[in-house]
Amino acid sequence: MACISPDGKPTESGSKMLSALKAEAKTPKEIAKEAVLPLFRVRSGLRELAEAGLAKQKDDKYELSEKGAKLIK
Amino acid sequence: MEEIQEQIGHMPRIGEPAPAFEAVTTHGKLKLEDFKGSWLILFSHPADFTPVCTTEFIAFSEIYPELQKRGVELLGLSVDSVSSHIAWVRNVEEKMGVKIPFPIIADLSKEVSLAYGMIHPGQSKTETVRCVFIIDPNQVIRTILYYPLTTGRNMDEILRIIDALQTTDKNAVATPANWRPGDKVVVPPPNTQEMAEERLKQGYECTDWYLCKKKL
Prior knowledge:
The complex is a heterodimer of chains A (about 70) and B (about 220). By secondary structure, chain A is mainly alpha-helical. Chain A has a single domain, classed as Arc Repressor Mutant, subunit A. Helix content of chain A is about 50%, strand content about 10%. Chain A is built from 4 helices and 2 strands. Chain A has a two-stranded antiparallel ribbon with strand order 1-2. In chain A, strand 1 (about 55-60) and strand 2 (about 60-65) form a beta hairpin. The radius of gyration of chain A is 10 Å and the shape is globular. Chain A starts with 11 loop residues before the first helix and ends with a helix. Chain B is of the alpha+beta class and about 220 residues long. Chain B has 2 domains: about 1-150, Glutaredoxin (3-Layer(aba) Sandwich); about 170-215, Antioxidant, Horf6, Chain A, domain2 (Antioxidant, Horf6, Chain A, domain 2), CATH 3.30.1020. In chain B, the strands form 3 sheets. Chain B has a 5-stranded mixed sheet, with helices on one face. Chain B is elongated, with a radius of gyration of 20 Å. The interface of A and B includes residues 1, 2, 40, 43 and 47 of A.
């Protein structure tokens, strides 16, 4: 997994994506811009973060889950 | 040989949607649809830790900034494990000082290789030949190049094709032989006699009614 380490913690790129969601829900494009990551990495990373229960998809945007919000406090 | 040929089945062609995939890569699990909206060069190499492939990976890394300026992503592939890819990429950085910035598919199941016709049993039953698939932002295959195992690819030509495709898409023109950015482009040939006659009055540089060029 590129965004979640085997110990369940977000990697550097995973943390950047989660931090980008701190203030508000964003589209993958907005996250890519803020986190300075390629869009394809953000799209696949968001799938992983959602599977790990750290982010949630709402229409075309992603937002932090309760678990994700706690992690980046 | 027969078994592999049976598995190959359909070979993708220019103008067709690129076959969808989900694959393990050095940058995590990626789907073709993750690249939607960008141009994508999907290319295969025979094997990690081999000399020609190493020179190609260095060359692809060198043109990566130019590709990025053109909105193009790179995605490599071979029938090797992700651990082998990681070890090779680290070796290239350590020994040759070049960081490979793009992901590489670890296609041990040959799922992607077979979907894209990258295994040519006459060359090798187990390794992919040197393929280049240029896929547009709508995920349609726009160019296919095949090179044999022994011939490294020409990066100038790959960049030239990207420039030509983007120029033709933007301006509804074609590009002549050996075209380079800045050169005159070919105006599409007329479809009717009336259009052919009008064409000659439009100020293009015409050798004849069917061969007219213009500066962009």
